[in-house]
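Q: My collaborator sent me two sequences in one message, no labels, and asked for predicted structures for both. Can we handle them in order? The first one she listed is below.
A: Yes, handling them in the order given. First sequence, followed by its structure tokens:
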Amino acid sequence: MSSATDVSKITRRSLVAASACAALRGAPARRPNVIIVMMDDFGYGQFAPNAAALTQKDYDPAFVDFLARHKGDAPEVGLEYARRAMPTMTALAGQGVVFTNAFSSSNLCAPARVGVLTGVQQNRYGFYQNEDVERVGLPQGSVLAGRLQQGGYATALVGKYHAGTRDESLRLGVMKKFGLAPGALMKMDPAKRAEVDAEIRKTGYLGSTIPEHNPLKYGFDYYFGYNRWECPFYDSEHIWEDRKYAGLQKEYNTDLFTGKALDFIGRSRKQGKPFFLELCYHAVHGPLKPQAPARYFDQFKGATYNMQNFYAHVNGVDAGVAALKAELERAGEWENTLLMFCSDNGGSINAASPLPGNAPFRGHKGSMLQGGLHVPMMAHWPAGLKRNGRRAELASMLDLMPTALDAAGIAAPAGLDGRSLLPMLTGKASRTHDTLAWAGMHARAWGFMAETTIGAAEPRRDESPGGWVVTDGSFMMRFVGATPAGLFKDVPDGAPAMRELYDMREDPGERTNLIGKLPQVAERLEKAYAAEAMKMPAPARWRRDRWQELMPAGHPEVK
């Protein structure tokens, strides 16, 4: 698709109607198409169906104070823009299911994506932060898309991957060309280094994977995307198509990914196959300064640039979903398409990622607070799900792929932590999970709390304490390891390890710590965490001392 193609042109493409397939859950029907749409660093309160249920009283006071000091918009503007930024998703939410108590499997993007792809809580692979995943990559056979591929589905991953190791041979090849030894770049004259870096970028190194970590090795028939934490909205040199570097991509990447997704759907329909598509947009990961196209940007005039541009990027994703819906309706396939939507982790809220942020929760991406873990999530499937409205049962992004397999009538492998949501949604089960548990970094570097760091937050993020969290859907218990001295301005002398307990329903903003008032609840939840933690091996790269502080007595790898 050319760089001039926009979503209005995309929606005019024609698709071939599907052939009849197997029965689903006892009723004659074709096997459904499945689409997972994932946004990046998108806050719970920034999702229009959730914003509709919020008031300004639900805002995180610390974030409101931060924006006031940084000349952000009036609080009421954020609610207004959030509520109207996604008209397509708002309409679909009214016909489908919005999960109000849904969580990512991690507060950071690479581990969270591992959880979605595998249905396994990624701590069980030794993944606690991004670098753990980047160093090791996914175990072969772990990605559940392979099950759908084996079951006759056409499968594709479009957009952000970030679950493999970059191909160092590309970088080293350029350095050899310039006669440079490994490590020499750091010592070079800046002008000469810029020349070498430009050559490295032209190889596609920044978004590459080693061959054995390419998504095509894990059950995807088609891959168009990048193996990195971010992708420039325009002029990206990060993107690969299947096993080849795609070269400079000038087009606005939200529209680019939508177009490639539609191309894949068209091919799968011509093959007479149901399809599985994981469409992982770069929006709204930073840097957010590049302006969204005018067709999105001009809809949000009257606010600061940050507010206007943020919700313009959000609106671009909504337009992408509208394009998918329009084409599938033309093909007679929309009624039997299961669409699931989520964000990879909590919003990285700051001046460029505005109110409502992660309201009604406090904190942001990278933290073990609810704002780092509680995510927007919804499902829509006219042929398979009756309207369920807003559901408060405990749910996880780990459940997305098991739900897809269940909808397709394909058995899930044993040992998954995710569960199909369909039994709960169809009334055959009262709940999906008894508890969910996490372990990892409890860091401030990925949002507005970064300004509390003494010195630059990014270089010091590995000094942050670790934390674990466990919830039963009603209460959430958190442990935060010891905070070192000299790291944060509010605790310059450091702080001892601590435990917290909150009533999630009555106190979503986590303002009243109940740890001393409900000892039996705390004991029950800590035992549940300890049972899960015994399955969590040492990290691949994260600091072992931070990990060890989170593990229970008797863990086989704790000295």
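Q: And the one she listed second?
A: Here it is, processed independently of the first:
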Amino acid sequence: MASKTISLRASTVLVRPGCRQAPWLSLAVVRWALFGMLAWLLAASRPAGAAAPPEGPLAGEELLVPGWAGTKEEPVLAYDSDAGQYLLAWRFAGTGLPAIQAIRLLGTGQPLDALPTPLSDPRPGEKGWPALAYGGSSQGYLICWHYDSSGTGANWDIYCRFFHPGGQWSLGPELALADTRANEWRPALARGGGSGAFLLAWNSSPPGAVEGIAGALVRHGQPPELSRFSVPECGLAQRHPALAYGAREGKFLLAWQRAQPGGQEGSYDVYAALFDEAQAQIAEGPLALAAGPKDEARPVAGHFAGAGPYILTWQAQYAGDDYDILAQLIGPNFVPLGAPLRIAFTIRPELAAAVACNATLPQCLVAWQEEEERGRGVIRARHVYADGSLGPAFAIADSAQRSATMPAVAAGEGEYLVAWAAARPDEEPSEIRTRPVHATYTFRGAAYHGQPGKPEVPLAGVQLQLLGDLDADPFGQGKATVLAASTTAEDGTFSLSWEPDSQYPYYHVLRLEGPGEACTGMSLKSAFGAASGPCTVTYANLPPGLYAGIESYALVAALLPHKVYLPLALASS
């Protein structure tokens, strides 16, 4: 593939395999090591530069990912829920080093490794567009990429590798999972559930045939077990697969772009199908999910936690070169839920969306590249919720010195991590930068009768509301809005999650007694609260460190400049 992408518009497609002939120089291992040592010395002496200040409480510090001197692009991210850390991989274009590299990162984006680890073998031939997924502590990670095995651009194949990162990285053998006479390129990857299998899909261009989507269900083993499949041919070019796994249904959502019949060259619509993990085949579809008259392309997919829907996001042409980011929620019965959501819809082109969904909260983060004046790119993002509501859009990377492109997103426990390629305008090489984004803030605890230290009687079935208020009075007319609602479980536990908003300087937790009735007990000075009307005092057993954790996100400093009322106690009848 081409080493530099001028634009990520759908109408400016990356150079396809077979269109470029740029074999790497064949280097001996010793020469490779010497080059690596020299590059390490150069990287170690290179100043990281001042990081831009975070924009509000949602974004943490922007960090430069360490590595050897050279062009780094096409970042991909995955989260290791067992170790509580991220893995970041990218395509590297530099002298004497393998093209696919990776590094471990903390939730803050801080690197756990001094330098990245090469994941592809140092053989001649261009490699690129990595896809990454975590398969659990027993299987580790699976990473795939496309590889010009011919060294001439005449034949591209899909290569993969299982590996475990750590102090001594354990790298499995490099596997040719798609090695045929067809051009096979730009893989997509997702990990399944019950069987622990990975679904791998890629663009396939057989000689003399129309481009299509091929793939395989990959099960870990020696050698890996493959169950191959392909999207049914339709006589039209199909490309750019995207994947997401829904654990409740035990199915993958497979999406792709299909050329418009009779349309102008480079115009596509977005289609999707459900892939059955148990049967290792397409179970339902294809279904046209974005079949407008304009160009709609480059889909990405995710799945909300638990019984939540799938989310499919893509870039849609509005007028001329102005692309916008849309999304469609898709129910478990493979039915679109409502109209498409306008994720990013401005007069500037918005391109190359990425999405990741939280494992426990009903929310996802969508990031995208926005082109500003003189072609400078910035990265923006917003939260999307399972009910179709949207959080405010905010900037992830917006620097006058660097243009940001190619965002990637992964979801951790209480945060997301966004990575992107950054370069000074019209210059190479590009570097990889990251920034964490916090998930929606959450109050968690349990409601009880009585007082702390006394016999506790859990309050089950209590309806709670979190109010964002313009003043200290929780019953002030027209000054409060409901930010979240919840009902306590049998053991009294509850969880209230919300998107912080700077217009509300006060927060209250209320228990609803009935139509038009509510009672509250809250104070910074007392853990017991105060009686209100017919309510008797109860209290909330909130976990230690809750408020300190919120303050570490600059919530109080950035959003609550006035007196703060926190739900240290709840009232009930």
